[in-house]
């Protein structure tokens, strides 16, 4: 939806490039740092970063209750890398005090592909994105260990699913904002 107000969680992580991507596509990006910022958006991006830190910052900023309410009310969400972890129903390999939002019925494994030095790029075949493979950048990426019956797997690697959707929530184990290919952002925007 052109002109949609797309919030980008800007507490920590790779918010800036998501803001630029949605601005280029004609949306109105809004950096979300407070519950008041969240109240006025049509959709939200939970970007990559460090999921434990994001979990703690959601608590200290007062955003967690508002975010959980908006997600439960059907707010469309795009979660990328750490954002996938934050949207999951269950997280494997996290700290005991780490809390996700539970936006969709998946179990994710943190750092499934290894540490920072094992970062990589892979071409993904995503049926709903015309124009050939999507060059995906994986940095300390999670993988989906279990997807519930209502979750649609849109792309996978041999290790497991890396792009999933359930209702208005889309999660990617990779960083679509890093490659300059805006097709995933465009697809999300069209579904708002």
How would you sum up this structure, described in words?
With 192 residues, the protein is of the alpha/beta class. The protein has a single domain (5-190), classed as Class I glutamine amidotransferase (GATase) domain (Rossmann fold), CATH 3.40.50. It is 26% helix and 32% strand. The protein is built from six helices and twelve strands. Strands 2-1-3-4-12-11-10 form a seven-stranded mixed beta sheet. The protein has a three-stranded mixed beta sheet with strand order 5-6-9. A hairpin with a 2-residue loop joins β11 and β12 (169-172). The mean pLDDT is 93.
Descriptive terms for the model:
192 residues; alpha/beta; Rossmann fold; 7-stranded mixed β-sheet; 3-stranded mixed β-sheet; 6 helices; 12 strands; globular
């Amino acid at each position: 939806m052109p002109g949609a107000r797309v919030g980008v969680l800007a507490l920590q992580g790779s918010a800036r490039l998501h803001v630029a991507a949605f601005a280029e596509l004609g949306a109105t990006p809004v950096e979300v740092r407070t519950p008041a910022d969240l109240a006025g958006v049509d959709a939200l991006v939970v970007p990559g970063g460090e999921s434990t830190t994001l979990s703690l910052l959601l608590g200290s900023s007062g955003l967690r209750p508002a975010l959980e309410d908006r997600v439960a009310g059907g707010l469309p969400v795009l979660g990328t890398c750490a954002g996938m972890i934050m949207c999951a129903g269950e997280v494997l390999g996290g700290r005991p005090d780490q809390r996700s939002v539970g936006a969709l019925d998946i179990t994710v494994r943190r750092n499934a592909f290894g540490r920072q030095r094992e970062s990589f790029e892979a071409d993904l075949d995503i049926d709903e994105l015309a124009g050939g493979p999507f060059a995906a950048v994986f940095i300390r990426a999670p993988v989906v260990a279990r997807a519930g019956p209502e979750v649609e797997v849109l792309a996978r690697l041999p290790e497991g699913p890396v792009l999933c959707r359930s209702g208005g929530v889309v999660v990617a184990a990779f960083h679509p904002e890093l490659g300059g290919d805006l097709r995933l952002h465009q697809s999300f925007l069209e579904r708002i």
